[in-house]
Amino acid sequence: xxxxxxxxxxxxxxxxxxxxxxxxxxxxxxxxxxxxxxxxxxxxxxxxxxxxxxxxxxxxxxxxxxxxxxxxxxxxxxxxxxxxxxxxxxxxxxxxxxxxxxxxxxxxxxxxxxxxxxxxxxxxxxxxxxxxxxxxxxxxxxxxxxxxxxxxxxxxxxxxxxxxxxxxxxxxxxxxxxxxxxxxxxxxxxxxxxxxxxxxxxxxxxxxxxxxxxxxxxxxxxxxxxxxxxxxxxxxxxxxxxxxxxxxxxxxxxxxxxxxxxxxxxxxxxxxxxxxxxxxxxxxxxxxxxxxxxxxxxxxxxxxxxxxxxxxxxxxxxxxxxxxxxxxxxxxxxxxxxxxxxxxxxxxxxxxxxxxxxxxxxxxxxxxxxxxxxxxxxxxxxxxxxxxxxxxxxxxxxxxxxxxxxxxxxxxxxxxxxxxxxxxxxxxxxxxxxxxxxxxxxxxxxxxxxxxxxxxxxxxxxxxxxxxxxxxxxxxxx
Length: 478
Prior knowledge:
With 478 residues, this protein is of the alpha/beta class. It has helices spanning 12-26, 30-38, 43-48, 55-69, 83-92, 107-122, 125-138, 158-170, 185-201, 214-217, 243-257, 287-290, 319-332, 350-358, 369-380, 394-397, 416-429, 434-442, 446-458, and strands spanning 147-152, 176-181, 205-210, 232-238, 263-265, 271-273, 277-283, 304-310, 334-345, 387-390, 398-402, 462-472.
């Protein structure tokens, strides 16, 4: 910790290691650190040469590092580059805007995010899901404080904005709080770009965007030790009335948040945030009417009237993880009458058929909602009497959506790009591990031939999701 520098006055090697770790974390040069902390650009060089540092100097350095970790000082830096990479990266860095900030990280994670973007733009899942959610929300009777929604993951914002159009139309004078749990800078970029229109139309909106894990995002409180840094809080009070006004004010946030919303591979390959972050966006002219919905650091969780978990876990995740880290915390955050809706793949559709034919010997189990509900009931114990669980029948649970960019004329040939997109969508929806997908591509065109066969047999590519809901009873102990 930075404060330990004061205790390392007589241990220059350890002090040097702490300072250099800080410089690497924030991407600043050692000379910059010395200049900003104690106005001495040669400070680190002198420590490395064995010079003794006075206690007062160590205290100033420690204070500087503490303030940076708390977010009170904004450091603009970047990792040291080799000479060979410098020219290429200089060209990339010439444009420093929201559209050019990149999200470096593990290959598998970002390859899956690329697959998601193809999937989202060539299927109508977002539209179908949004209309189902909107039906639930517009039937709700808002409480005196408004409607509180928890939404995870935020993805690209299409489902969210389509849902909110219906909610805002049904409840134009009702304050709405939406807490959005994202996974990276691209989620933030795509979603924020769409929210400005919602804020313009529905002025009584508060949006909280966070990269905290689900169990943390519910209370906006860090609980994991994946990052040593504290939560960075930002409050963005927008002025004006037009969506263009709001867009211009939110655009600089991308640069500010680009370091915090980076994704790194964790100890077990899972995506880990660089720094926990919370950004609250609302209109300044509605501050007083929205004050009760604007979260503050250290405050208690708001409790939610509606929680959407849209494919919140992988099929490879254990039941213990699904219940303990995702479902149980969300259920606990429901207000009386509040509902949690969970969406996941069903496993019986042409997409999964493609995967099963390509890897007939590879186990790819799909954990059904019935198994999850059974484990949830066991984990709830006696508390399950406070809740109602629905979605047990296929008639109420299942819904289909389609890949809508395939040929619509009978007998039409499927083009190479459409076929590749269909393959991508099947792999993404069935949650195939990236190394398997890459291996299939290297083996030749067999994966495309199988994809074409399945599409011809089923008359296209369609997918089936299943849902279940957990509702806290009015008057329950929660």
